[in-house]
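Data deposition worksheet. Section B asks for the primary sequence of the deposited chain exactly as it was used as input, without tags or linkers unless they were present during the calculation. Section C holds the resulting structure in token form. Section D is free text for depositor observations; keep each observation to a single sentence. Incomplete worksheets are returned to the depositor.
Section A, Depositor: J.P.
Section B:
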Amino acid sequence: MRLSLNNKFLIPTLGIILLGLGASTVISYRISKNEIEGIVKAQVAQITDSAQKHLSAWIQINNMEIARWSEQNYFRIAVKDTFMGKASRKAADEHLDRKKKGIYIMNL
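Section C:
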């Protein structure tokens, strides 16, 4: 098959254009892949840091709440195995039930 002058220039030109587009696509893919991986890693680190701070605050708040409860007499008396202890356990149970219903204990 004889190629005309137009085809002699057209085929190599199209080949060079396709080769350039292919190279451009591969380079763009690799750059985009690296950038997206970096963004995902940064976002995971940010979410992890935020969750750690939230969990630390939650633990601190609940520790303060438990420390405050330990200062209340009916919790102290409730651990004793006496009549007063039994009555205090009932009062402590009622107190904790009210707290659960009022959602005073912060949930994650």
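Section D:
The helical segments are 5-70, 73-78, 83-102.
The chain is about 85% helix and 0% strand.
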